[in-house]
Each structure stands twice: as structure tokens, then as C-alpha cells.
Amino acid sequence: MSKASDIAYETIKSLIFRNEIRPGQQLKEEDLAIKCGVSRTPVRDALVRLEADFLVEKRDNQRSFVADPSCDDIDDLFALRAMLEGHAAARAAERMTPALVSDLRNCLKIIERDQSVSVFLDHNAKFHQIILLAAGSKRLVSMLERLISQAVVHHTANAYSPEQISKSIAEHRELTDAIEHGDADWARAVITGHIRRAFHVYSQRVRTLGVSLDETAA
Amino acid sequence: MSKASDIAYETIKSLIFRNEIRPGQQLKEEDLAIKCGVSRTPVRDALVRLEADFLVEKRDNQRSFVADPSCDDIDDLFALRAMLEGHAAARAAERMTPALVSDLRNCLKIIERDQSVSVFLDHNAKFHQIILLAAGSKRLVSMLERLISQAVVHHTANAYSPEQISKSIAEHRELTDAIEHGDADWARAVITGHIRRAFHVYSQRVRTLGVSLDETAA
DNA sequence: AAAGACAATTTTGTATACAATTTTCTTGAA
DNA sequence: TTCAAGAAAATTGTATACAAAATTGTCTTT
Questions:
Q1: Would you give the DSSP letter of residue A206?
Q2: Given pLDDT bands bounded at 50, 70 and 90, which one contains residue A160?
Q3: Do B85 and B193 belong to one domain?
Q4: Which value, to the nearest 10 degrees, does the dihedral of the CA atoms of residues B82, B88, B92, A53 take?
Q5: By C-alpha distance, which of B78, B87, B25, B172 is closest to A139?
Q6: In chain A, % of residues over pLDDT 90
């Protein structure tokens, strides 16, 4: 990750996640190049990738803007995630190995011991990553990573309360059981519910605050 | 599509589909630039896009190669397609409008009247496109278009016999009925079967010929 | 004022030069 | 011969200059 192109990609993504550039705002190659400390060429490479991630949108006039997902978009995003993660979990269950189960249990152990939010976020991501890799489909990996990299998903995690975190941990435990039993349908059902719940935590919070999380986080 | 970057993208994709560059073969930016009649800069843009399409693979040593999907990859590809197209058809059924149904029936009419292979291929693609757009999810569109743009999918269509084409048309007719009734589950079931059948036509042909279609097409 | 034409500015697109890296070739020692 | 080291060639990565396109501002005409 020493190449200028990767630096640009990570830097811009981080700027978007940290809300230093807002949804709907125009992205100018020259500005970004200065912010990233590289030339326009790697910035352009990065923009192409970010567009594939749905984080940046290139309009007809050739200008790039930070994506500003509508409510429908967000609903759609979670629906797709539920479907794809369900598929991944089912495949992981079908391909279950003792090594996989022990990886998952290790991950769980760390979360359960130290119930801090940051540890939870880290290992929650790692947990899903293990399942995704176990599913053994590079296309699925690529598609899901694109969905998960959405700003909304990133913000959702911060909306979890302690009770919701412990509920989430319980779901992870059940998912591990399902995979250990090689029960694809069970695994799919658990994770689908898991994602659906994340969606409702998110939309509940948006309704309560009456604003988008993007604005609150700024 | 007058920009050099789009020319490069389409040209390289066409070279891959026409098997003028073979799976596994290395892609050199300079060579491609000459073949496309543009400079290396737009070729690099195109390669990034083709990589996202899984048509080109960039290895650790930074060299790009034409993707060479294994049997498992192909199996995986069809499974993902079946799932995503199923989802698209279900959503299209839920959002059914008379205009949508009439679009589909028009498309069908053209295929039924002129049962030539090229017309079938054209309007088969158009038919799926209509459903995809009706599903109203830009992320789904992007993901499915990437899967459909695979060389394998491209080659599958050419493997259809007249009987298989008429069977395929019948499935399209049933799918239209399902959507007209707004029956999401029915629509999903029909299209899932449709894709699965395409998969078996493909793998049957590969087994019969004893070689990959890539080799026969060259 | 309002609309249109056109110049000035900004922004993106492409080509090219050069730097960095990887691969290939050559040479020499064990 | 085999292997390693290092030079040479090939290839990719980045910066920059300039071309093309889009946007903005200004002036004129009505």
C-alpha cells in the first residue's frame, strides 16, 4: 500500500467517511491531488475505483460528486447485503471445516471478553470477513466488499447501543453454531435476520434524530 | 462513446470476447494502446474497469492478464447470476406496471416472429435488461451487468440449439405472466430455473466437446 | 431587465517523458 | 552444469504539459 494510487483511494475514502467532504459535494481532481499529496493521475485511478464502490458518482457533465444515497437506496443496499451475506453464510456452512469454526470461535471469544465498542466493530468486521472467505467465491467477495464499504454501513455500526451489541454477539454465536452443524439454511436465516436488524437500528436512529447520520457525524 | 477511454474499454473487451487475446495471456499497456489507437493513459483506465468486470486480473507483480475462469468459478458465476436475477425478477414483479408488461410482450413478439439466432440473442439481452431496470436498484444493475459481461456468459448463448431457444422463449413468456400477476415468488422461480438451464446447456456442451468453448471459438 | 453571443476561467481528458519496478539476459564462480 | 549476481531490457507507475470540454461571467442587443 505504498503506491500513490492506493494512498489516494484510502485518503479520499477516509475523507468521505469522516464527513470532511459531504454527500453531494463536487470532487475536483486538482484539490484531491493536493490533499492526498500525489498528482492527478493516481487520483483519477482512485476515483474510478470509488465509483465502482458507489461512493462517488460521475455525472453526465463528467464531474464527480460524493454519492448521496436516498432512503430507497439505503433500503436497497441492506436488502442486497442480506441476500449476498445469506448466500455467503450458506456456502460457508456447506464448506465447514474445524479450522473455520475455531477461527470464528476465537473471534467471538475476543468480542465477548472485552465488550468495548471499538473491539466489537473490529472483530465484527473480521467475523464477517472469515465467513466471506470461507464461502470461496471471489466474485461474492468483491461484490460484498463494495456494498460494505458504503458510508451508511460504516455509520450504522456507531449507532449500536450496549444492549444491541450483546444481541448482535448472540447472533454471531448462533451463526457459528449453524455453520458448525453445516446447516446452510439455518446459517442463511440467522445472518439475514442479523442484517435486517442492523437496518432497523439504523432507520430507527435516523427517524429519532430526524436527520441523516451524515450530518450528526460531522 | 467518443472518448479514448471508452474506445479502449470496448476494444479490449471485444478482443477478449473474440478470443483474439486468450485467457491467461498477458496484457501489455503499450501493445493495447497501439491496438486501440490511443495512448496508455486511457488504456489504464479501461484496465481498471475490466478488472472490476472480472475480465482482467492484475497479479501481485502488477502485470495484467486475461482472466481464465476455472470450472468452480463458472459454477459460482451461474449461482450468483441465478440469485441476483431472481431478486431482480421478484422486485420487477412487485413493481409491476402495465407499461412494463407491454414492453416485455413487445420484446417477446419480435423474438417469436423472427426466430433467428441473432435476433434471439439481441432481444434476450433486451428482455433481461427491461426486467433489471424495472427492479429499480442501481447497485443490482451494476453487479449483474458485471456478471453478465463475463466471457463465459457471452459464449453460452451461442451454444443454444433451436429446440433450446424455443424452450427459452417459453420461459420468457411464463416470466412475463408471472410479472403481470405481480407474483414475485413465481417470477423468481421461473428465472432461477432459466439460468440454471443455461448453465447446464453450457456445461453439457463443454463435456461433449471435451474442450473449453474458448478454444472452439478461436 | 432578459436573452443570446462570446470571451475568460475552471475542470477534465489525453499524450508523453521520466522514474520505479519487474523480468530477462549475461557472465562468472563453485 | 548450476547457481548467483548484476547488467540490460521490458513494463508499469507517476508527474506534468497541453488539448478538449464545460462552466461562468460579461457585454451587447432588444
A1: H
A2: confident
A3: yes
A4: -170
A5: B78
A6: 63
Selected for mutation to probe chain A from B62, B138, B139, B192 (highest A CB count within 10 Å) is: B139
Residue range of the domain that includes A139: 71-217
* pLDDT tens readout for residues B114-147: 777 788 888 988 999 999 999 999 999 999 998 8
Strand D bases contacted by the protein (CB, 7 Å): 10-17, 21-23
Query: Which among A45, A66, A87 is the end of a domain?
Result: A66
Checking if the pLDDT of B218 tops 50, the result is no
Total domains, chain A: 2
What share of residues in chain A are helix, strand, coil (percent, to 5)? 75, 5, 20
Place of cell 433467428: B116
Q: Are A175 and A189 in contact (CB under 8 A)?
A: no
Within this chain, do residues B111 and B163 fall inside the same structural domain, yes or no? yes
Strand C within 7 A of A204 CB: no
Residues B49 and B95 in one domain: no
Contact assignment for B76 to A142 by CB distance below 8 Å: no
Torsion of CA A73, A76, A80, A85, to 10 degrees: 90
